[in-house]
Amino acid sequence: MQKIIRNLLLACLFIGGCAIAVSDYVSSVRREQPVYIALEQPSPSVQGKIEVIEFFWYGCPHCYQYEPVLTRWARKHADVVTLRRIPAGLHDKQVLHQKLYYTLAALNRLGDLHQASYAQIHDRKRALNSDATIASFAREHGIDPVDWRSEFDSDTVRDEATSATALQRAYQATHVPSVAIGGRFLTSPSMVGMSLPYLGQTDEQRYEAVEKLMDDLLLQVQQRNEVSHDSTLAH
User: If you ran DSSP here, which 8-state letter would residue 46 be given?
Assistant: First the structure.
């Protein structure tokens, strides 16, 4: 009996040691991943402010969770930052939600239905995965079906969706949510999360870490813009 117990203890120690070794290896590999991407296309200032772009998708639960975090960060820097949201469009489901977003914008309903679109999917568990379900959602919120269909199928909305996808590709935003700062840097909670301990990592830890990184990247953009401005004046 003692031999069996001893063998079990040895097995547990061996398995535990392997688990620790694997965890350490995974953590070391993750730490080698970049927490942001340097971009080569600085965007012009918008009314004297630095443009911050969020690439998102209504169907992404992480985007829904991150939405209030990013909004709070943008408000903290409201004196120097303007926030622009770009719906992702790298696959058919995302393109459908691009049309949802730009139709809401055309009908001046983003203010009350942007968050409601997220909630419809993630809180109410009602998919917005077809023209019909999206039209039904719009009708439930008092939008005339004729007005909705006219905008949803318009060339304007189609062109805006196409431009959004082109911008997403240009910024190398391959996953959502991602945030571009001044056209110079791209980061995301998932990228920053790669630098954190693998085991026990929480959304709150990722959001806190990405907020600190974004503060630093914003400062770098401000400093580069000042240098560029001074150089222009010198000439």
Answer: B
Quick one: pLDDT at residue 200? 80
Query: pTM for this one?
Result: 0.83
Task: Quote the number of domains for the chain.
Answer: 2
Asked whether the beta carbons of 117 and 187 are under 8 A apart, the reply is no
Distance (Å, rounded) from C-alpha 74 to C-alpha 80? 9
Boundary-marking domain end, from 126, 149, 172: 172
Please give the residue range of the domain that contains residue 208: 32-57+81-88+175-235
CATH number at residue 148: 3.40.30.10
DSSP 52-108: EEEEE-TT-HHHHHHHHHHHHHHHHTTTTEEEEEEE--SSHHHHHHHHHHHHHHHTT
3-state secondary structure of 141: coil
